[in-house]
Write a structure and sequence with these properties.
about 450 residues, alpha+beta, binds protoporphyrin IX containing FE, about 50% helix, three-stranded antiparallel β-sheet
Length: about 450
């Protein structure tokens, strides 16, 4: 039962520092975000206050605390990312909308990620992954993280937008500028992060308009999420303005997250040859790895039956969740761990800190896909101790899409090549997503 506002407003605020007037602790956060979060978790524990990017903020860690936030959307909390993020990303999509508008946009977008739609994306995903892996084998040595970023860029532009931007370095650079400046001081002057982010946004929107025109003229050759949403739009609920903004959001939401997960997948497989062997065994058992059949065309149903592989992907996302957490605006004062979360403040729920501190998983730091044999993946109990995709009314719309890419990547890697990490224990950074600071140098060869 939730406490009333009267009672909760008498509770103490969480520990923490509000930093300097106006800028708060933003400078520490922007310059060293990973250290920022780690230091405060050590110092203050599961709930603490700070002042970030213009907002008094409370950060919340731990399953029960996170659950309180994720299950009271539009009642205790609503969307609120920093103002720079809202300006750069635009407010006509799903991420920065609330209430009925948010709900109806979600329902429309979800159609592009249901089973029937996903199955049409598999051939393009597989071909793209396959071609990248061939190039990695030809190169011999690669840097895993930048390669995964380009791979994710290629797949998301093709399969989400229906436009192949793989060779368009200007689009890839604009997306990087867009992503790198989402968390900036809210000052729009030439040279500022916000200014660069807005410029990148405008450029990307012109490219999205080109994709929309190509779809309308019927010159697109493979199925895509945007194509599907456009084909529904005359009768559907999305206006042209919403569609453009949503296309941009999907690119943002799907690119770095998937790149991070793909890179961490290669890292964990590179560390554990026994896991690679088990994936190969499962592929043999399912007739997806015969001698004459290395590059069998995959389909969604065959991929969905690969239980061990699914556990591997789940485990990668548990140990290295790409996204650190989410932002919300507090609508009504409430309590967490006996402390006050005041109305009007920002509250951020933490995914990584929750994964790293939960006692729900035994030997939680160990990479062990078999742990999932004994765990009901979608039980309530696991839901808030394991939340790489968030949960509730704002949970990830692209999670099946992302997991599909990761599974195809693992299958194609195991069937087509072997690889060796040149540094098996790289240091990790966690913002904007989880990635190895040395970019994960890897040596590839063609023999599986
Ligand atoms: C939301 C994670 C891939 C589309 C989210 C949230 C998380 C997340 C944690 C919730 C944020 C919050 O609570 O504020 C991930 C991870 C991915 C991934 C870890 C890859 C491994 C994708 C992909 C797409 C996508 C590929 C699109 C195809 C979205 C959208 C939302 C979202 C549209 C916003 C939903 C809303 O506000 O209602 N994602 N995501 N994500 N994700 Fe993903």
């Amino acid at each position: 039962v939730l406490s009333t506002t009267d009672q909760t407003s008498k509770l103490p605020l969480p520990p923490g520092s509000m930093g300097w007037p106006i800028i708060g602790e933003s400078l520490n956060f922007i310059s060293k975000p990973t250290a920022f979060y780690n230091d405060r978790r050590t110092k203050y524990g599961r709930v603490y206050k700070t002042h970030l990017l213009g907002q008094p903020t409370i950060r919340v860690i731990g399953a029960e605390n996170v659950q309180k936030i994720l299950t009271h959307e539009d009642e205790l909390v609503t969307h609120r990312w920093p103002s720079s993020t809202r300006t750069i990303m635009g407010e006509n999509g799903v991420i920065h909308s609330g209430g009925a508008e948010h709900n109806s946009r979600r329902i429309a977008i979800a159609k592009a990620f249901q089973h029937s739609a996903l199955s049409t994306y598999v051939p393009e995903m597989q071909e793209t992954v396959h071609n990248f892996i061939r190039t990695w084998c030809d190169k011999g040595r690669i840097l895993g993280y930048p390669e995964c970023r380009t791979l994710a860029f290629s797949i998301t532009s093709k399969v989400l937008l229906g436009c192949d931007f793989t060779q368009s370095k200007d689009v890839e650079e604009a997306l990087a500028n867009f992503e790198d400046n989402l968390f900036s001081f809210p000052v729009n002057i030439p040279g500022s992060g916000l200014h660069k982010g807005i410029k990148a946004r405008n450029f990307l929107l012109t490219k999205i308009d080109e994709c929309i025109s190509r779809h309308k003229s019927g010159s697109q050759s493979y199925p895509s999420a945007l194509g599907l949403l456009l084909s529904q739009s005359p009768q559907g609920s999305l206006s042209q303005t919403e569609l453009r903004n949503i296309a941009l959001e999907l690119l943002f939401a799907g690119h770095q997250t998937t790149a991070s997960a793909a890179c961490c997948l290669m890292m964990h497989l590179g560390k554990k040859t026994e896991v690679v062997d088990r994936i190969a065994e499962e592929l043999y058992d399912r007739h997806l790895f015969q001698e004459a059949n290395f590059n069998t065309q995959l389909n969604l149903d065959a991929i969905s039956e690969l239980r061990y592989l699914s556990q591997v992907v789940r485990e990668v996302l548990r140990i290295n969740p790409p996204v650190g957490g989410g932002f919300r605006k507090v609508l009504k004062t409430f309590d967490v761990d006996g402390m006050q979360v005041p109305k009007g403040w920002t509250v951020t729920y933490s995914i990584r800190d929750t994964h790293e501190t939960t006692n729900f998983f035994q030997q939680r730091d160990k990479f062990d896909p078999d742990r999932w044999n004994a765990i009901q993946g979608d039980s309530q109990e696991v839901k808030y101790n394991y939340l790489p995709f968030g949960a509730g009314a704002r949970g990830c719309l692209g999670k099946e899409f992302a997991k599909l890419i990761l599974k195809i990547l693992a299958i194609e890697l195991v069937r087509n090549c072997s690889w060796r990490l040149l540094n098996a224990s790289p240091e990790m950074k966690y913002l904007p997503v989880a990635y190895p600071t040395d970019n994960l140098p890897i040596e590839f060869s063609s023999a599986p």
